[in-house]
Design goal:
The complex is a heterodimer of chains A (about 160) and B (about 550).
Chain A lengths: L2 E4 L2 E4 L3 E2 L12 E5 H6 L10 E6 L17 E6 L6 H12 L5 E6 L6 H6 L4 E3 L6 H4 L20 H4 L3
Parallel strand pairs in A: 3-4, 4-5, 5-6, 6-7, 7-8
Antiparallel strand pairs in A: 1-2, 1-8
Chain B lengths: L5 H22 L5 H9 L3 E3 L4 E5 L5 E3 H14 L3 E4 L5 E3 L7 H9 L17 E2 L14 H11 L14 E4 L13 E7 L5 E7 L11 E8 L3 H15 L10 H8 L1 H15 L8 H8 L15 H9 L1 H10 E3 L5 E6 L10 E3 H14 L3 E4 L5 E7 L3 H10 L14 E2 L14 H10 L3 H7 L4 E4 L13 E8 L2 E8 L11 E2 L4 E2 L3 H15 L6 H8 L2 H10 L2
Parallel strand pairs in B: 6-7, 7-8, 16-17, 17-18
Antiparallel strand pairs in B: 1-2, 2-5, 3-14, 4-5, 4-13, 8-9, 9-10, 11-12, 12-15, 14-15, 18-19, 19-20, 19-21
The chains are: A alpha/beta (about 160), B alpha+beta (about 550).
C-alpha cells in the first residue's frame, strides 16, 4: 500500500492518482485527476459520490480553480524537480488568497529537506518518491522551531508575535 | 550593530544542527550529489577547483572585532590562515574540509555568524553602503532596513528555490556606494516632501552574461510597505521567471521580456493582495531594529583638528594616505578610515589571520570595536577621532593595510579567478598584480586620480567588470587565457555599462594595454576631468586607436 505523510504521520494513501483522465471513465471512490481534465468539463464530476481531487503542475495557475475550491477534497501540486520552487507560491495562493482548506498535497520530486518550507507554505500532505524513507523524512517537517516571517502556517511574522 | 536575541540564536543553532545532519546523510550516501547541492549552496558551500569554498555571511558588511577574531581563529584551525573578502561584503574560506564545515558553522554561531543563503537560488545577503550611518552625505541610515530584510528573507519558505540567485542592495546617501542599479532589487532609502520615510524601488539590474541597469518600478514606497512589496516582486519572479535556461533565469530577463510597465502591473496586482497584511512593518519593529544601530558614544570634538593639520603638514606619506583613505564623517572631529586590502602582490580582498587580528585590535582601539567590509573589498573603520588618524595610520602601515590607494587604479576589484574558481575561464589575480606593479609610482597613481579597475575571470562577473571605469574580463580562446577590455562602466549614481574596446589580449601585454589607455586619458583630460569624464567626452575611439596601434 502506498503511503503519504499527513498530519506529521506516515499513513496509507487512500487516493487513486490519475496521470490522465478520459471523460466517461469510471473514477475510483477517491480520485485525484489532472486539472486540465477537470476543467474541461467540471459539471460531470458533480455526481461523483466519493472524494475528488485535482493535481496541478508547476506551470499551472492556481487562480483557475477559484470557483471549485469548495468541492475539491484534495489539491495536489506536482514538483517536476525539487529545485522548481513554483509550487510554494501556488500553495500560498491557494491557501491564503483562494481560502482553500482541504488537503494540499505535495507530490513528485519532494525531499526530506524541503518539507519544512512546504509545510510553511500550506501543504499538509506529502507523497515522496517510493525509494525515499518517509519515516526519516518526518524529521524534516520540524527543522526549525521559530520563523521570522509569516506564511500560511503562521500568518503573523515574528515581529508581531514576539514577547519582548 | 545588530545583536542577536534568543530567537536569532535559536534559529542559527537549529541551522547548524540541520546542516550537520544533511552533511552526515550525504557522507552516508543517503543524499545524492544533486540533492545535496542546493542544501550545501544555501549554506555557502561550493565545491571548487582544489577544495570546497565556504562563504560566510557578513550581513550588510557589519562585523565586530570579536567576530573578526573568530574568523582569524577559524582560518588557522580549519583553513590556511587567510580569508578573502568578496564584492558582496561576505568573507570566504578557500580550503575547508567538507566534513568539518558543520564544526566551522558551530564556531561561527558562537559569535552570532552563519553562512545562511550566501549562495544558491535564494535571497542573498543584502548589501549596502560601507559608510552607512556615518557618511556626511547620508539621508537615511539603510542598516535597519537591511536587518529587517535579513530577517524576512532568512529561510523564507516560499523563496528558497527561485529560478536563480537574488540580490538586494540598499543605499541611503546622496552618492550611491552600494551599486543599487546593478542589483536584482535596488532600494534608495529617502524621505519625501512630507518627511515620510520610504524607498525608490529599482528592479532587474545585474551583471553576469546579460548586464543591465535596473528599472524604476516605484518612485516612493512608504516604509511600512517594504516587506509586502518585496514579497510581491519575489512572488511574481518565482512564478514567472524562466527556469528552462539558467543564463536567462535572473529577474532582469523577466523584466525585459515583459517590459517595465507590464512587470510593474503584475507586481502591483500581486501587492494588492498583500498590502496592509500581516507583513506590514510596524513602527515598534522599525524602532526596535533601529535601536541596534544607534550612534556610539561620540566625544564632543572641534570641527577643525589642529593636531591633524600638523600631522598632515609634517608627513607627506601620511598626507597621501589621508587624501585617499580617509572620508568625511557626519560628526565633527571624526573621520572614516579605509584599510586597504589592495597592497601589491596581495590578492585583492585577501587578509591573513594576523591582519584580521590587527584589524580587530585597531577597531577596538580607534573605532568602537566595529569594522565594515566594503563591496570594493576593503575594511573600514567608521568612527575614528581625527587626532587619532596619525597613530592609526602608523599601526596600519605595520600590518600592510595602509596602501594609500582607495579609489585609485590599484584599488582593484577582482574575483579569485582561475587560481581558485571552477567557473573561471582565466586567472584574474596575476593580471591585478601585474597592473599594480606597473603603476607602483604613487605620485603618478595619485595624478591619474579616481579610477575603478574591475577584473573578472569569467562572464559571471563576480569582479563587476561591466561597471569598472576600466573592466577586464578573462576569456577562453581555444584553451588559452585572453583578456577583453571594456571602458566607461560605472557603479555609482551615473551607472553605466562598459563598452568593449576590441579584440582581447594575451596576459603579458595587459600592463601595456592599461598604460596606453591611461596615456590617452592624460593626453586628453582637462584640469577638472576624471578618467570617466574624459572617456564620456571623447568616446572610445581614441583609446581604441592608441591601444591597437601600440599593442598589436
Amino acid at each position: 500500500m502506498p503511503v503519504i505523510i499527513k498530519n506529521q504521520k506516515v499513513i496509507s494513501d487512500t487516493y487513486t492518482f490519475y496521470s490522465s483522465y478520459t471523460s466517461g471513465d469510471v473514477l475510483a471512490e477517491r480520485s485525484i485527476i489532472p486539472i486540465d481534465d477537470f476543467l474541461a468539463n467540471p459539471t460531470q464530476f458533480e455526481q461523483h459520490s466519493g472524494s475528488l481531487g485535482v493535481w496541478l503542475d508547476s506551470h499551472h495557475e492556481p487562480e483557475v480553480l477559484s470557483s471549485y475550491i469548495h468541492q475539491l477534497a484534495v489539491i495536489a501540486i506536482n514538483f517536476p524537480s525539487f529545485t522548481d520552487g513554483r509550487g510554494y507560491s501556488i500553495a500560498r495562493v491557494l491557501r491564503e488568497r483562494l481560502g482553500y482548506q482541504g488537503e494540499l498535497r505535495a507530490v513528485g520530486d519532494i525531499l526530506h529537506d524541503q518539507l519544512f518550507y512546504l509545510k510553511r507554505c500550506g501543504f499538509d500532505a506529502f507523497k515522496l518518491h517510493a525509494e525515499k524513507d518517509p519515516e526519516e523524512a518526518l524529521r524534516g517537517l520540524n527543522a526549525f522551531s521559530i520563523s521570522y516571517q509569516g506564511a500560511s502556517d503562521h500568518p503573523q511574522p515574528l515581529f508581531r508575535r514576539r514577547l519582548h | 550593530m545588530y545583536k542577536y536575541d534568543a530567537y536569532d540564536k535559536t534559529i542559527v543553532a537549529e541551522r547548524v544542527a540541520q546542516f550537520r545532519d544533511q552533511t552526515q546523510r550525504y557522507l552516508e550516501g543517503k543524499l545524492t550529489d544533486a540533492e545535496f547541492l542546493p542544501l550545501r549552496l544555501q549554506n555557502g558551500l561550493y565545491i571548487q577547483r582544489f577544495a570546497p569554498m565556504l562563504r560566510v555571511a557578513i550581513p550588510y558588511g557589519m562585523v565586530s572585532a570579536k567576530q573578526i577574531r573568530k574568523l582569524a581563529e577559524i582560518s588557522r584551525q580549519f583553513d590556511k590562515g587567510y580569508v578573502h573578502f568578496s564584492t558582496r561584503q561576505n568573507v570566504q574560506y578557500n580550503w575547508p574540509k567538507l566534513e568539518k564545515v558543520p564544526d566551522i558553522l558551530a564556531e561561527l554561531a558562537t559569535v552570532e555568524m552563519h553562512a545562511i543563503q550566501t549562495s544558491g537560488n535564494c535571497i542573498r545577503n543584502t548589501t549596502t553602503d560601507q559608510f552607512a550611518g556615518v557618511a556626511a552625505d547620508e539621508l537615511v541610515d539603510p542598516r535597519p532596513y537591511c536587518e529587517i530584510i535579513r530577517q524576512w528573507s532568512t529561510f523564507h519558505p516560499e523563496f528558497a528555490y527561485l529560478p536563480r540567485k537574488f540580490k538586494i542592495a540598499i543605499n541611503g546617501a546622496k552618492q550611491d556606494r552600494a551599486a543599487v542599479q546593478v542589483h536584482d532589487i535596488g532600494l534608495h532609502a529617502q524621505q519625501n516632501d512630507q518627511g515620510e520615510l520610504g524607498f525608490r524601488v529599482l528592479v532587474g539590474g545585474g551583471l553576469g552574461r546579460t548586464p543591465m541597469i535596473g528599472t524604476e518600478i516605484c518612485d516612493f514606497l512608504p516604509e511600512r510597505h517594504l516587506l509586502t512589496y518585496l514579497e510581491a516582486i519575489l512572488r511574481v519572479y518565482n512564478r514567472y521567471g524562466r527556469r528552462d535556461n539558467k543564463y536567462k533565469a535572473r529577474i532582469k530577463i523577466l523584466v525585459k521580456a515583459l517590459g517595465a510597465d507590464a512587470f510593474r502591473a503584475k507586481v502591483e496586482a500581486e501587492w494588492q493582495h498583500l498590502k496592509d497584511g500581516p507583513q506590514t512593518l510596524t513602527e515598534a519593529e522599525v524602532t526596535r531594529i533601529s535601536q541596534h544601530f544607534s550612534s556610539p558614544d561620540y566625544a564632543d570634538l572641534p570641527v577643525e583638528n589642529t593636531q591633524l593639520q600638523q600631522d598632515l603638514q609634517q608627513d607627506p606619506n601620511f598626507r597621501h594616505w589621508y587624501e585617499r583613505n580617509v572620508t568625511a564623517h557626519k560628526v565633527p572631529g571624526y573621520a572614516i578610515a579605509t584599510l586597504s586590502l589592495k597592497a601589491t602582490a596581495q590578492a585583492p580582498g585577501d587578509a591573513s589571520d594576523q591582519q584580521l587580528e590587527a584589524a580587530a585590535d585597531l577597531a577596538e582601539q580607534f573605532s568602537f570595536g566595529e569594522i565594515r567590509v566594503s563591496h570594493q573589498q576593503n575594511l573600514v573603520l567608521a568612527d575614528v577621532q581625527q587626532d587619532h588618524l596619525y597613530t592609526l595610520w602608523q599601526e596600519a602601515l605595520r600590518f600592510g593595510f595602509a596602501t594609500p590607494n582607495i579609489g585609485l587604479l590599484t584599488d582593484v576589484i577582482c574575483c579569485p579567478g582561475g587560481d581558485f574558481c571552477a567557473l573561471a575561464n582565466a586567472k584574474s589575480l596575476p593580471i591585478a598584480e601585474a597592473i599594480q606593479r606597473r603603476f607602483d609610482d604613487l605620485d603618478y597613481l595619485h595624478d591619474i586620480g579616481d579610477l575603478d579597475l574591475n577584473i573578472s575571470g569569467c562572464m559571471n562577473a563576480c569582479g563587476h567588470h561591466h561597471v569598472g571605469h576600466i573592466g577586464i574580463l578573462g576569456v577562453d580562446k581555444k584553451g588559452a587565457e585572453f583578456y577583453q577590455v571594456q571602458l566607461g562602466g560605472s557603479a555609482y549614481n551615473d551607472a553605466s555599462l562598459g563598452k568593449i574596446l576590441g579584440p582581447s589580449f594575451a596576459r603579458d601585454v595587459m600592463p601595456d594595454v592599461i598604460t596606453s589607455i591611461i596615456d590617452v586619458y592624460l593626453a586628453h583630460r582637462t584640469s577638472e576631468e576624471l578618467f570617466i569624464d574624459t572617456y564620456r567626452r571623447i568616446g572610445i575611439q581614441p583609446f581604441k586607436d592608441r591601444v591597437y596601434a601600440s599593442n598589436n
